[in-house]
Amino acid sequence: MAPPRARALLLPLAAATVLVASTIFLFAAAGASRWRPADTGLPVPASPADFSALPIGVSVTSAAKGKELSFLDENGRPDDPSSGSAAAAEPGRCDPRDAAVRVFVYDMPPEFHFGLLGWAPPSGNGGGVWPDVRGGTVPRYPGGLNQQHSVEYWLTLDLLASSSVAPCGPAVRVADSRDADVIFVPFFASLSYNRHSKAVPPEKVSRDTSLQEKLVRYLVAQPEWKRSGGADHVVVAHHPNSLLHARSALFPAVFVLSDFGRYHPRVASLEKDLIAPYRHMAKTFLNDTAGFDDRPTLLYFRGAIYRKEVIIVPTNLVLHTAN
């Protein structure tokens, strides 16, 4: 029997990013209405930290109000809802009504997202919490292996610029949560873990743990969370160790993960969550134009196949492929 063959699917990075984004938000929008925490029947594991006694001290930014749908431009400013959507009236702008999914993004303080990259709102920014995604002032995500879990960064940027280009992408940011299909939580959990998971003396608690405590306080106080119990929220925790202290409190939300290996099945499962791929790190072969019939290898693993808890899967795949 001839060896199995696989067709190579080569996508530019931009196209792959759009594909992942569309899958995440379409899946979240569909799952928010059909899944509830009680469905699994498993007990909820105790949270490593008790957040219930913590006072709520994070300010809430109210959403723009209006009878018609109100959408945000690339700088986070609401279009004029009285004009029947200014975005739809301007050439070269996305008509949000054509979007497959409408997403509300919490205007959380920068310490949860771009502040972790050293960004701060410029003076005279009117208290804005987002960088100008079209002005070239967006900080870069750190390189190296950090890039593996950078989906949190790219999804946030994609949403911030979602209404600035026509035609609409798969998901468009809206100003009023009542118009949204899903609620996006812009917390760079993987970056927080990679950079701030260890306490710096004389502090007893790491910055990552502190941010997770603040995140839980913030979310459970929001009317959007109370309205759905968090089932329509999307939280990116792609690094396996990220969101370690808050995951048991936020488990009703849709998690975007790299695997389920370190999660209790009551907290994360195929019933409600999504596995997003790592960002491509290996160098791409130059002039790789071989067709389907010229590719005899089914799978090729680059690097070590023995990695912590996932040792069995790649080893078995290699053995089966060899046979």
Set down the secondary structure blueprint.
Elements: H1 13-34, H2 86-89, E1 101-105, H3 151-160, E2 171-174, E3 182-185, H4 189-196, H5 207-221, H6 223-228, E4 233-236, E5 254-257, E6 274-275, H7 312-322
Parallel strand pairs: 1-2, 1-3, 3-4, 4-5, 5-6
The largest β sheet comes out as: 6 strands, parallel
The residue-averaged pLDDT reads: 75
Enumerate how many helices there are, as a single number.
7
| Uncertain segments | 1-17, 37-43, 51-68, 80-89
* Relative strand content: 5-15%
- Which oligomerization state do the chains in this entry correspond to? single chain
* Largest sheet: spatial strand order: 2-1-3-4-5-6
> Could you tell me the radius of gyration in angstroms?
21 Å
What overall form do the CA principal axes indicate? globular
Q: Please report the distance between the alpha carbons of the first and last residues.
A: 11 Å
What attributes does this structure have?
24% helix; 323 residues; single chain; 6-stranded parallel sheet; alpha/beta; disordered N terminus; 7 helices
Can you put this structure into words, describing what you see?
With 323 residues, the chain is of the alpha/beta class. It has one domain. The chain has seven helices and six strands; from the N terminus they run ααβαββαααβββα. Helix 3 links the parallel strand 1 and strand 2. Helix 4 runs antiparallel to helix 5. The N and C termini lie close together (11 Å). The N terminus is likely disordered.
Tell me briefly what this model is.
Residues 100-306 form the Exostosin GT47 domain. The protein is of the alpha/beta class. The chain has helices at residues 13-34, 86-89, 151-160, 189-196, 207-221, 223-228, 312-322, and strands at 101-105, 171-174, 182-185, 233-236, 254-257, 274-275.
